[in-house]
Amino acid sequence: MSKIFVDKKAYEVNPKQNLLEACLGHGLDLPYFCWHPAMGSVGACRQCAVKVYRDENDTRGRIVMACMTPITENMLVSIQDPEVKDFRAGIIEGLMMSHPHDCPVCDEGGECHLQDMTVMSGHNYRRYEFRKRTFRNQYLGPLLNHEMNRCIQCYRCTRFYNEYAGGKDFGPQVLRNLVYFGRAEDGVLENEFSGNLVEVCPTGVFTDKTLKQHYTRKWDLQMAPTVCAHCALGCNTTAGERYGTLRRIVNRYNSQVNGYFLCDRGRFGYEHVNSARRIRSARARRDGQLADIPKAEALDRFSSFAAAGKMIGIGSPRSSLEANFALRALVGPENFYAGISDAAHRLLGEMLAILRQGPAPASLLQIEHADAALVLGEDVTNVAPRMALTLRQTVRQVWLDKAEKMRIPRWQDHAVRELAQKDHGPLFVASPYATRLDDVATETHRAAPDDIARLGFAVAHILDSASPEVPGLPEPVRAQAERIAKALQEAARPAVVSGVSTGSVAVVRAAADVARALAKAGKPVAFALAMEEMNSLGLAMMEPKPLGEALEAARRGDAQTVVVLENDLYRRAPAETVDALIGAAAHVVVLDSLEGRTTEKAELLLPSTPFAEADGTVVSSEGRAQRFFRVYPPPGDIQDAWRWLADVLGLLTRPEGLSWKNLDDLVEAVARTFPALERIRDAAPRASFRIAGAKIPRQPHRYSGRTSMLANIAVSEPKPPEDPDSALSFTMEGAPVEPPAALQPFFWTGGWNSIQSVNKFQEEIAGPLRGGDAGVRLIEPAAGSAPGYLNTVPAAFTPRSAEWLVVARHHIFGSEELSANAPAIAELSPKPYVALGAEDAASLGAAEGAAVEVKLEGGSARLPLRIESGLPRGVAALPAGLGPLDGITLPIWGRIELTR
Amino acid sequence: METPLTAKIRPDGEMIDLAAYERAGGYQAARKAMQMAPQEIIEEVKKSNLRGRGGAGFPTGQKWSFVPLGADAPRPKYLVANGDEMEPGTFKDRVLLEGDPHEVIEGMIIAARAIEAERGYIFLRGEYTDAGQRIGRALHEAKEKGYLGKNIFGSGTDFDLRLHMSGGRYMCGEETGLLNALEGKRANPRAKPPFPQVSGLFGKPTIVQNIETLCNVPHIIEKGAEWFQKLSLTGDGGTKLYGASGKVKKPGCWELPMGTPLRELLEKYAGGMQDGVQFRGLLPGGASTDFLTTEHLDVPMDFTSVAKAGSRLGTGTMIILDDKTCPVGMVHNLEHFFAQESCGWCTPCWSGLHWAEEILWAIETGRGTPADLERLEYICKMTAPGNTFCALAPGAAEPLQSALKYFREDFERHIREKRCPWRDGQ
Amino acid sequence: MLTPEEQREIEEETAHFPVRRAACIDALRVVQKHRGWVSDDAVRDIAEFLGTSSDDIDSIATFYNLIFRKPVGRHVIMICDSVSCWVMGYDKMRDHLKARLGVEVGQTTSDGRFTLLPVVCLGACDRAPTMIVDGQLHANLDPQKIDEILERYK
Ligand SMILES: Cc1cc2nc3c(=O)[nH]c(=O)nc-3n(C[C@H](O)[C@H](O)[C@H](O)COP(=O)(O)O)c2cc1C
Ligand code: SF4
Ligand code: FES
Question: Whole-prediction pTM value?
Answer without folding.
Answer: 0.97
